[in-house]
Fold this protein.
Amino acid sequence: MAVTKATIRAVNDLTARWAEASAGGTVFSAAGVWPLLAFLADGAGGPARGELADAVGMSADESAAAARELLGAMGRMRGLDSALGLWTRRTLELRERWEAGLPVEAHGVLTGDVGVDKGALDAWAAKRTGGLIEEMPVQVTEDTEMVLASALALRTQWLSPFRDLPLWPGAGPWRDRRLAGLYRSSELLDRVGVADTPHGHVTELRVLGNNAIDVHLLLGEERMTPGQVLGAGVDILARRRAVVPGDRFPCGEVGPGLRVERVRSAAPHPPILDVSTVAFGMRAKHDLLALHRLFGLTTAATPTDRGHFPGISDSPMVIGSAEQSAMAEFTAVGFRAAAVTVMAAIGAGIPQLRWVTTRVRATFDRPFGFLAVHRHSRLVLVSGWVTDPTAYPADPDYDEDL
């Protein structure tokens, strides 16, 4: 069964709410958090059940089925590996109904030896992410009764690779830095668009992957916050905000980082979209309890003798920690190696510039947001905000003083 629009909307809305509370350069996966909250909501009681349901965006009675549906859909997406894991102490007896709702292969055992258990959890995280995340962000103690975890890893290669050349922004927070610039040109002007939002205009550039996982780059007006820009991206995905595509732009400054020009050409070239952006790589750790209201964990993390999860076990339990480690890398082609040899011949004389063509220039040379999206379902898998792009590799013969 395909994942429902209601579940996709709930996950993407959690992305937008997280973005409103985030600050600085970071990366986050609501698709990794949401299933855990949904399973906890199904097993919670009292006020904790209502708070978790609000965070999940649907009733607690529906949440576990929706989580299973989401995990199943992600398991079928090309380029995406995902998994759910549950570990419990041998003495903890789970409710049959709740345990039956989890994947059969998910359940492991905590031995009580902190070192052994931490090693096993770290090995699971590394295996399930292909080594991208080497350590599970949890501190196992002698009091740990249960660990519920998710892992996802995605990879894609661009359908049209970028050229890798230095970029020196002339203004803004990256001014005069020698950055790893990425450039490409395309005749597909509709890959870029501008949305008008209550907070300002946002430019969206869609970079398509070869396995239906795309990355949407989002540049807002300079006064806009990361939450406003990423929230606009989520609204665009949900079709709550209309986008004017690049093939309908007038001449001039048409949006953040966007300029349209009519230029003379020596041949009758079609309209061109020129893109300039930067490579980036980032890692982040998130303490979800620091945003307990956002994630519906206020009551669930409050100590009590009776516990908050009667639907999971008779043994009283509260949430002792909730964290996420995440990483993202954006490069010219992913990993690809190639060699091209060109013999160039030039003609004599001055060309006659008899034709006029349209050139759309999209430039991402200051902080911007990104959403990694499954193209067909429009599910946001990973989101983030870029503040520290990759520097261009040092050239031993390069002298900045020249």
Observations:
- The first strand starts at residue 26 and ends at 28.
